[in-house]
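Researcher: Re-running this chain for the archive, since the previous output was lost when a drive failed. Same request as before.
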Amino acid sequence: MTVRIPVNPEIVRWAAARAGGSENLLKRHPHLEKWIAGESQPTFKQLQEFSNRVDTPMGYFLLSEVPRRQLPIADFRDGFDPGVREDSPELWATLNTCQRRQDWYQEYAESIGIEPVWVVGIAADWNAQETASHMRKTLKYEVNDRKGDASSQRRYLISQFELLGGLTAFNSMVNDNVYRPLNPDEFRGFSLVSPVAPLIFVNAKQTINGQLFTFAHELAHVWRGKGALGNAKLNATSSNEVEQWCNLVASEFLVPAVDLKARYPVHQSESVPEILESLAKVYKCGTLVVLNGLKRSGILSEKEFQELYPIELKRLSALASSAKGDNSGGNIQYSRAFRLGRTFSQAVIRELASGRLLPTDALQLTGIKTFKSFDAYGDYIEGQV
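Model: Regenerated structure tokens:
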């Protein structure tokens, strides 16, 4: 006799909706509509498969009402009322994956005597300008030292933070699943701050210049010693004091006000787009960050900034649209290194080689599906050292 599980149809409906709608799930779960209608119930195996597919614990389906889950880190996103909005399965999966990796790495680091990352919490009582200056000095990122384009800046800052002992992850999807993209309007990044293994995640479903600002914002969280989830935007004043501070630090880190005031007179006869583009080339960041810097420096008023911001945003959107189709793809191992972070990857590879980590655990930690793919990635990482 087949044992069936008495699931709550409303929770099945809720879980299916969170995962993108029942239409997308019917191919793998042909009985889903009947479960939702209460006309039939799944077997244990069917429920287990469905639970995994929609990233929902099996026990939830037996509850009497739809559960309210609280995020495991501080939520500083503006425009996201915890009482009315529903966090996506993609956000939950990303958070859970990063927490699992951080926990594993922290245990690994402590087992081999890795010292705490000395910058964590160092700026707890500092002002934004002092913190940004310390970040630039520590990461060797003064204005005149910056070389290359935005991609080069991203690569360099990741490397510098990892040299300090931090962990990084840049991804636009859940693991390698292109069918589960991340939404930058829902969140742009987060930081999981711990003394030994501070981890910064950046939603790569935004421009590289956007990623740079988000990374700088999360660096500020690490320096302050308090991690959080955010959706920071340059044209909005956050209702949260910590987010305001981190936004200010990030902007000052990328475009120092004193330096900007010294350089601006050379460009003031140019049109606004020309000024922004010229200064963006100097600071190796986005024009919106430069525009924010002009406001912070007192060169632009708040009113002028709010008028110019949507104009510049529209111009950038038009440029981005015209550039679509130019992406020729990329090296899968190179992309995977951005998604996992090199420090974390090297630790997993070392532990696997030593026999202290099982191959199946290595696959689970990295999200890589096959041993062949893992070996290819390991060869790539070892070749980069």
